[in-house]
């Protein structure tokens, strides 16, 4: 029984650890103080450049790691925590590309006598692009907060209803998780010798979770209406686009475009080879 009692808190801490991204967004650093619109637009340019590479390009993606590393360092973000968050969702990218080596067996190059097929190269490219894009998204939230990201979306012209839906989905995902954890703990406290652990019980739990979610959603809606919510996302601090934001956006965007059209590692390799001759 004691082992069951310790299992539930572990699930809780693993789930609610996602909220640490928003807690990190309340820090004070040069990156945190930038306008959310500048960070969002710059990150979007970064994402577009990264995903636009062809499937066999790997070395050209490596310089893009400078952007998330610099932002995480200047923002005082724990790199270990961010790496764990990326690894937590990495299985999605892994299963997307795991069959590439089986479907594309044509060798692209040789390492000594070992031929490397295009499938393995495209698989590595998928993993690199996934790491870059997901890592940049996590860093954006950790330096801006999801609330600030949704506000920036609305201010940049995205439909207000879409920004509100994203905000509510993220905010009340933790409320839904809290309800699910209470159901899991209640089931664990009422099950002995493995009884009450079948699929039929999980079906009942899902039904109760749906009913609780509907009741909670109605209470949340009434509370928001009583507090005068009019569909407008607001922040306590005023948004202001200034010289720092312009330098941040233009500088990084120019760097991304340069890295997109010029394979820097290949150019450096050719330069070093030429000097060695």
What does this structure look like?
- With 277 residues, this protein is mostly helical.
- 70% of the residues lie in helices and 3% in strands.
- Strands 1-2 form a two-stranded antiparallel ribbon.
- The protein has helices at 2-16, 20-24, 36-51, 66-74, 79-97, 100-103, 118-144, 146-155, 160-189, 199-226, 243-261, 264-276, and strands at residues 107-111, 114-117.
- It starts with a helix and ends with a helix.
- The chain has two domains: 17-158 and 234-264, no CATH class; 160-232, no CATH class.
- α4 packs parallel to α7 (118-144).
- The radius of gyration is 23 Å and the shape is flat.
- The longest helix is centred in the middle third of the chain and has 30 residues, at 160-189.
- The chain has twelve helices and two strands; from the N terminus they run ααααααββαααααα.
Task: Give a short synopsis of this structure.
This protein has 277 residues and is mainly alpha-helical. Helices cover 70% and strands 3% of the residues.
N-to-C series of helices and strands: HHHHHHEEHHHHHH
Within the largest sheet, what's the order of strands?
A: 1-2
Number of strands: 2
Summed up, the domain count is 2
Instruction: Give the low-pLDDT segments.
Output: 1-16
Alpha-carbon distance between the two ends: 71 Å
Helical content (DSSP H or I, runs of 4+): over 70%
Beta-strand share of residues: under 5%
